[in-house]
């Protein structure tokens, strides 16, 4: 199960967060800082994208200046989450061309909609890029 999803820039500023567990606000702030310190200090070329974190595991991927971090249970499949991160970025790229940090900031409502189409209650819901994009087109037609 996914515990939380964070998208942070290199400076540690959180651009997207989704929590699937109950955490108090001080706990969330502490977790965001710890996750950023953990993933930002790792060597991208010689270390894997999986990190043991408390009693869970962080699966992350860096795209340009953004870290896409998923906190999962230790018995979950890390590679499937790594693919889900890549699919999430591909879907964002399909709409914004080459997605950047400003796209996440100014179109946050749309980014959360994509996130909700892909993940439900901490589990992967949809893995087909074409299905997600067609649903987003349907939602866009409603606006």
What secondary-structure arrangement, pairings included, does this model have?
Elements: E1 2-9, E2 14-19, H1 25-40, E3 50-53, E4 56-63, E5 66-73, H2 78-96, H3 101-106, H4 108-118, E6 119-120, E7 123-124, H5 129-142
Antiparallel strand pairs: 1-2, 1-5, 3-4, 4-5, 6-7
Helix pairs in contact: 2-4
Sequence of strands across the biggest β-sheet = 2-1-5-4-3
- Termini gap: 32 Å
Number of helices: 5
- What is the N-to-C succession of helices and strands? EEHEEEHHHEEH
Query: Approximately how much beta-strand content do the residues carry?
Result: 25-35%
Extended strand count: 7
- Contiguous low-pLDDT stretches (5 residues minimum) are none
Biggest sheet details: 5 strands, antiparallel
Radius of gyration: 15 Å
Helix content: 40-55%
Identify the overall geometry: globular
How much is the average pLDDT? 92
Structural class: alpha+beta
What would the keywords be for this entry?
143 residues, single chain, alpha+beta, 5 helices
What does this entry show, briefly?
This protein is α+β, with helices and mostly antiparallel strands. It has five helices and seven strands, in the order ββαβββαααββα. The strands form two sheets. Strands 2-1-5-4-3 form a five-stranded antiparallel β-sheet, sandwiched between helices.
Can you give a write-up of this model?
By secondary structure, the chain is of the alpha+beta class. Helices cover 46% and strands 27% of the residues. The protein contains five helices and seven strands; from the N terminus they run E-E-H-E-E-E-H-H-H-E-E-H. A five-stranded antiparallel beta sheet has the order 2-1-5-4-3, with helices on both faces. A hairpin with a 2-residue loop joins strand 6 and strand 7. Helix 2 packs across helix 4. The longest helix is centred in the middle third of the chain and has 19 residues, at 78-96. The protein is globular and about 45 Å long.
